[in-house]
Amino acid sequence: MENIATIFSQLEPALLEEITANGVIKTIPAGEILMRTGQFIKSTMLVLEGSIKVFRENEDGGEFLMYYLQPGEACALSIICAAKSEASQIMAKTVEETTVLMVPLGMIDKWMLEYKSWYHFVLSTYRNRFDELLNLIDQVAFRNMDERLDFYLKRHAKINNTNTIALSHQQIAEELNSSREVISRLLKKMEQRNMVILHRNAIELI
Amino acid sequence: MENIATIFSQLEPALLEEITANGVIKTIPAGEILMRTGQFIKSTMLVLEGSIKVFRENEDGGEFLMYYLQPGEACALSIICAAKSEASQIMAKTVEETTVLMVPLGMIDKWMLEYKSWYHFVLSTYRNRFDELLNLIDQVAFRNMDERLDFYLKRHAKINNTNTIALSHQQIAEELNSSREVISRLLKKMEQRNMVILHRNAIELI
DNA sequence: TTTTATTTGTAACTCAAGTCACCAATCCCC
DNA sequence: GGGGATTGGTGACTTGAGTTACAAATAAAA
Prior knowledge:
A 4-stranded antiparallel β-sheet of chain A has the order 2-6-4-5. A 3-stranded antiparallel β-sheet of chain A has the order 1-7-3. The first copy, chain A, has 8 helices and 10 strands. Chain A has helices at residues 4-7, 13-22, 76-84, 105-114, 116-142, 145-160, 169-175, 180-192, and strands at residues 24-28, 33-35, 43-49, 52-57, 63-69, 91-94, 98-104, 164-165, 196-199, 202-205.
């Protein structure tokens, strides 16, 4: 794992020291649920390594994808909920082994006043999540499933920095709140158009 | 119009004085566009009276509703964009004659450090908008049009504190990104189930 | 009072996408 | 290697909702 100062290079040195002093580094195995619908949140997390999936669970247990948290990012919701100690609407879980830095909620308010770089970091966290949600609304409100699938695959490839998506059709269907058959059909069409090559548990982008 | 101190009673007196000193009160006629997609934002707004519709415009000019800003609320986006001076993804316009207090963006950052009540106000503005977007995603991703229509009518009634919605089917269709015929059909069904009474340009909730 | 524009009602059609049913291929583990 | 589990392919059917087309009702304007 890289150094905290490298991952959060935009934060000023004095703040990084405080973060190191007050935060607890925790490594979480893949697939662990970090936040459950309706759960009370008592600390925020900065992602150091790995990746966290933020999603909404529907009635059938499908995990409708909202966005991913990557190293160098923080959970906007935990910061927001902090202020109100209100129930969160969404869930979060690790997709791979993930190292996070847990920061007590009290520190967040304190640092906002003391460190300009923290203030800007928190605001930009909000803004990025806000944008991400606007984008998601765009997708579900205006796009058809074929466009959404295409967008999903490309984003997934970009985030993981590879052009092979190692997911089953079922998993993709759940993240897009669709059904396996629909995704299989659309992927077949994409293959016929030479946009992808299909393998078992893997989709290769061309 | 009520007093600023009454509308924003959660803000501390010293801050209210500063707001009055630095802000400009502006009354805007109904239907005026306050923020256009891609436009640069140079000041934030606190709503004193009236109401502002925040929406996304689709290709055909339909105004897909995101949420309404009411007296006592502020535009979260303008605050977010402020920090980054980035283009906004969405549009805003007055639905009726609206009085706002324009505050230069520079003040926002300044007050965050100086006034705890401002800090909490801004954060709660973010959180409320975030919640609103999550709710919207819920609607478009998981609900059918009949449920969305029902939800829409009830919310509209609640906001305007009346059980008569003074809108044409066409207007409703645009805000839900649907078509007039679909809304007419669904409303007819609701009337048959004794959920509403239909009038010209008005829908009465029972 | 005509004329015109707006609003609403409805039937018929189309299409995207979800569901059902079933099968084949592949993997995994005992 | 055999048997169950997971994954993927495909046809047939259903449904929600958008589209086309047209008519009736009402309001607004001339």
